[in-house]
Amino acid sequence: MENTVDQPDFPLAVRSLETLTEQVARCRNLSMTAIDSQKRWMVYAKALTLRMAGGQDRLHASQVCARSTMRTINGKLDDVVRKVDALDSKVDGLDCRVQDLYRRLTAGERNELARMVNRTALRSDAGLAPLFSLHGDRGRDSWLSINY
Prior knowledge:
Elements: H1 10-26, H2 32-119
């Protein structure tokens, strides 16, 4: 097997050099204004790219700050919700205590009236007014019939 080395194509090289010479000669037709304008556009594009990159950095920093602020706000809202729930529980407890106190006062007032009526009974067959019970038997005269 014989080593063959590719030989240059001189006619192609000549045509390529002629084409290159022709294109370089046309460069003198370009005005300096067009070249300067192109340079200005390149500088402007680079400056714009840098500004956009800076804007993206600021936007990212703002987003990080906003996320942090939202986490803080959510934490504080969770605290407020817990405190409101605790207050609601306390108010419910107070409401039960007030209702109990109202039942006791109402029963006490009615029992005082019943005692006054019962003191006036002179005979053993005289009808007595019933006393009201806080833990009534759910009869018609029990504390459950007390309207608040």
